[in-house]
Specification:
Length: about 375
């Protein structure tokens, strides 16, 4: 297989359906690259004139040494559609990429995968649920797919890395990690899964590329879980792709007064599976719990060395932030006693203080 020819052809970024049609016509990308120009023109008469000219012009620049050098530096590989390493599940979608770039390893076990996506502007509740759910599902042997974006995606990858494999699908080249603060996370994912993209090397994270990226997140998965997804969000675009591809669609409910959850609630109204635990996901996907290792308990037991004031405060807190005045009112502790209990719980790593003098339980992620 001529990898250089595949990279050259892929660099044209033709629509996937059109690219596959050309490959069917010519048999291999090198035949398009090296064939007689008159044959190319006659066989591609149905192409738009500008697209045809771009294809003809590209035949004068077949040097992919820059891409090969970048791949060598990154330890990356190119996976053509015809390769045995190409994910079989992607071949079932209507518009599979003709080539993927990957850092890390794609393995046979990745066929048992679930995608988890959500808002970039997520709340503590959404982040905590994302981290816990992804960890629990990774504990059960599933590979977790997400998009490495800020917010929910980041927490999904972090949670999955605690227990198993995760795959990040980028909307940029695999040598252009976005957002930049996730560069170390991308390296960690590479060591325990894979970072992949259909975008040519060096591609910047332009906004228009992300919807196309989302079809790969769903295409690699048995089903998609949406967490804190407003209406018209990228996560709901992923859910739409999942439906078109015949994948399961699931959603985590949230605060009904928060607009971040309107998309998830609409999905549930429209028939998406309501998800609270990893077992809900396994049931929806038709994966018996007995087939996979048992996951951890969904709730964390309280330590035995808590004072009565600390226990009262812990009994009130959850993933939803509670303000100090509400803690005092609900526990009927004095302000100094409540403050002292919260301070000790923070020291013990059981409570986290959020901006606005609000508190949540720690340890869910």
């Amino acid at each position: 297989m001529d990898i250089a020819a595949w990279i050259w052809f892929h660099r044209l970024e033709l629509p996937p359906v059109r690219a596959h049609r050309l490959l069917e016509q010519f048999g291999a990308p090198e035949a398009i690259r090296d064939g007689d120009e008159s044959d190319i023109r006659s066989a591609t008469a149905d192409l738009r004139p500008d697209t045809l000219q771009r294809l003809i012009d590209a035949r004068g620049n077949t040097d992919v040494s820059r891409e090969l050098d970048t791949m060598d530096r990154l330890g990356a590989i190119a996976i053509p559609y015809e390769s045995s390493a190409y994910p079989a599940c992607l071949k079932t979608i209507p518009d599979p990429p003709i080539l993927l770039f990957a850092r890390g390893d794609l393995v046979a076990e990745d066929r048992m995968a679930v995608g988890i996506v959500g808002s970039r502007r997520s709340t503590h509740y959404g982040k905590a649920v994302a981290a816990r759910l992804s960890k629990d599902l990774a504990d059960r042997g599933l590979t977790i797919i997400s998009g490495l974006a800020r917010g929910i995606d980041t927490e999904v990858h972090v949670g999955a890395l605690k227990s198993g494999r995760t795959i990040a699908v980028l909307g940029s080249g695999i040598d252009v990690v976005y957002p930049p603060e996730n560069r170390q996370l991308a390296k960690d994912i590479e060591n325990s899964g894979a970072v992949i993209s259909e975008a040519p090397l060096g591609t910047q994270p332009d906004a228009w590329r992300f919807p196309a990226r989302n079809r790969l997140i769903s295409g690699l998965s048995l089903g998609i879980i949406c967490i804190e997804s407003p209406v018209n969000s990228g996560a709901l675009i992923t859910a739409t792709f999942a439906l078109e591809q015949g994948r399961s669609v699931m959603a985590v409910p949230g605060d009904v007064t928060n607009g971040k959850n309107t998309g998830c609630h609409q999905l549930i109204k429209d028939g998406a599976c309501l998800v609270q635990t990893a077992d809900d996901v396994l049931l929806e996907l038709g994966v018996p719990s007995a087939v996979l290792p048992a996951g951890p308990a969904e709730t964390l037991p309280l330590p035995l060395d808590l004072t009565s004031d600390e226990s009262a405060v812990m009994g009130l807190l959850s993933l939803t932030p509670v303000e100090m005045e509400d803690i005092i009112a609900s526990t009927q502790l004095s302000a100094p006693a409540a403050s002292a209990a919260l301070m000790m719980l923070e020291i013990k790593g059981l409570v986290k203080r959020l901006p606005g003098n609000a508190y949540v339980r720690a340890g869910y992620g």
